Amino acid sequence: MQESSKKAKSSSVKQTVKKTQPKTVRVYSKKISDEEFARMSDFFERYGRCRHSFLNRYCGIKSMLAVNNWQALRNQVRKWDKPVKGSKGKLETVYNFQTKHWVGALREACANIKSMWSNLANRLKKLIQGNENLSADQRHLLFFILKFKSAWQAVLLHKPIELPEEYTEALTEIEAKLTDKQIKQAHSYLRRITYRYHYRARKSGKLGSSMKCDLNWAFEGNTFSFSSDVPRKQFSVEMTSPWSYPRTGDITVVLDRIKQRLEVHKLISSKRYSNDSKKAIGIDKGLATLLSCSSGNEYGKNFSKLANAIVDKYGKRNANRQPYMSLRWQLNQQLEQLEKANQPLSKTALRKKRKLLGKLKNLEQNNIGRKSYEKSYRSAQETVRSFISCAINRMIEKEHPAVIAKEDLTFVKEKGVKSDNSRLARKMRKRLNSWTKGQLDERIVYLSSKNSIETHDVNPAYTSQYCPICGQHFEERYGSHHELTKCKKCGEMNANIAAAKNILSRLTDEEITLYTPYKRVKEILASRIKEA
Ligand SMILES: [Zn+2]
Predict the structure, then answer these.
(1) pTM of the model
(2) Which CATH class is domain 280-294+375-531?
């Protein structure tokens, strides 16, 4: 009885515990031109040499503690590197790049050395565990010492161990169980195995081909840029896909010398569910309802309301700007006429021109300034983004898929959901819609990879036009958001969910692959009706 309740408890824990695990996501560049590649290769090589020199300089026992605080080391190096302010630093001259690059190389070297020491500690613990010549108390002592780098370093340098008070007591307690000879023996064993396995300075063999960047990198659409050896001139590379992951923090840029391309890696933490699902779902993205799933569930249903509210707000704002815009247009026209009329301009004409220019400047600064407008547009974007993330997270939680099939971000559906009154409101809606589409796709990829879910793009052709049950062509769409449709055989159904089901079946469709042309897809679909 007791046992079964224990079992139930542990299994319920197992289901709710979500382990997070680090995961590297990657984006690749297209092939880089020979000239650009040569520049990059040279730069990565110099960066690698610089990192290697730091690695050699600080991998010793004396720097064991110093590498924990790389900023302090950086300040030390700075003093030595550039004794006179305003002059070019030694490292900049030697490696011919910018200050931030040697700082980055130092930071990376410190991180490497730190992890090297903790890997070594783990290795030594195993050796100590397996050494039968040591007594249990001696092993206990060495495990304790390996917990504190300062204690470890003190033993290696034959110095007395200094620890914070609360730990000193524990150490004395452990040592009380041992004779002096036993302690000495344990210490010398630790020294021996440390020296045997610890990383030593060595010659750099490999060409540098990776670089960590914390700041100074950006993605815009498919273009990735990061700082180059020349100030104010970034490397800019076309990638094969846009960036769907956080835009801050560390990334690693890797130069693939064989394929002549760049890879961008980022470590993200992803959840891993203990009960691994194998479920695949299809999703149809939309602007009225954000996500329609092949399971029949929908998420982000009220999105059109939110979007309408935003567009209305900006429509009004734009309407208020309208008279000023037309005034600007008039002034520009006058200016143009003035300049066309007679050259060179007479004195009165010049005066008039100055006056017009002044008025225009005033107008642009005070009445149609873009700054506050852009600021509130960004806050609207923020609202939309959190709405999108919320919908995707609910979908992941409820559907619990292992694989998501979707269309890529170039989907074009839902034309004229609502006719707006003003031209500017329409413009605003267009802007918001296209941003939302990109954002929706990006968030799906990111949140999926965070949850260890695979995403696959499938061929988007005609997914919303044929019945997923019998393959018949749908009749007209209707409903307030064109969300309903009819199949001659199967009757009324939700067109978005039907599309999601079609998208899911594309995942395993051997005839219609991602690259099958539209026309061919239509022929295939038509032939399937006849067969049925
Ligand atoms: Zn049907």
Answers:
(1) 0.63
(2) alpha beta
